[in-house]
Design a protein that fits this description.
The complex is a heterodimer of chains A (88) and B (106). Chain A has 88 residues and is mostly helical. Helices cover 88% and strands 0% of the residues of chain A. With 106 residues, chain B is an all-alpha fold. The chains are: A mainly alpha (88), B mainly alpha (106).
Chain lengths: 88, 106
Amino acid sequence: MIETVTTICFILLGLAMMGAIVRIIIGPSLADRILGLDTITVLAVGIIALFAVRTGLTLYADIAIGVALVGFLSTAAFARYLLSRGRQ
Amino acid sequence: MIYVAAALLIVGSLLSAVAVLGILRFPDVFTRLHAASKAGPLGAGLILLGLAVVSGDWAVAIRCVLGFFFLILTSPVSAHLLARAALRSGITPDSRTSIDDRQINH
């Protein structure tokens, strides 16, 4: 049963990641692209946690938390860069 | 117990998909941040809680719950930073937005 559920969730998250990539490609401004990258890291946390559920390797929980930390720091750094770049 | 985990996984994935739907459909950066910074981290956090339920190990479960709270606490901070940077860099909100907060000095 958990196999079926994780398969459905993988499909949903894969479609979501494709949508975020579409937003990065068509995003009219740099802020849209940073938003898409932030969404991709959050979705990656979900996919890694799903992989841990699927395979039973609970070591992946630590990796998911690490990816979440790096994602927050990268979004903060990109926002600081956007601030320091100034008004276009 | 396995049914609780399955429900958490399904709801988390659906919330992530709804967040990306909002990112694709909303008109400007600020409304897109609305969708992405609430539904997205809650979806990933619910998947982490599902992992905590299904693991059956206290050490893993506590780490997953800590990751959930980390996601929930940091997403408003990054969304606020990004919205402030977008506003300062000269992006105007959509014309359908009724209240113009740009008049207030942030």
